[in-house]
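Anyone opening a protein record will find just a pair of labelled lines. With that in mind, the following record should read easily:
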Amino acid sequence: MTTQEATTRDTTTFDLAEAIALLERTPAALDALLRDLPSAWTDADEGPDTWSPHTVVGHLIHGERTDWIPRARRVLEEGESHAFEPFDRFAQFAGPRRPLPELLDTFAALRAESLATLRSWRLDDDALARRGRHPELGPCTLAELLATWAAHDLNHLVQIARVMAKRYTTAVGPWRAYLGVLK
């Protein structure tokens, strides 16, 4: 296999075991990065209408409760007959603000439950090819939903790192030229 073929495979082929390996690490990665940090780091954002690391963890919790497994279950049980429930991307702002350590613990517990459910389904290629329907994007496969779950985690890990790095945009002085995360 050429390098080009390997690169193409890596971006087009979904592998459930690889996705689970990534998904199970996200809670520990967030915990290691955020737990017991001063709030100057965890409450930092990029300005109005942007999210802090604290907010992102709340968003991930909401996703565990209402998005990934409920949507996967709908694909398996109903196929395309009923669109997924719309996902409220801002639900983490409702209700009282919870301490970050509590959010990290909640996220870890919910993710463990989600992955236990996912593993219990013993999904094969036929199941992964089953189609559901997103309320805005239209038809999708279960594999695409699960791949999105993994990419969504990575998207928010990048977001958290970027937001935190930007606290030191000026403080790094001339090294800013070398720090792509600050651009």
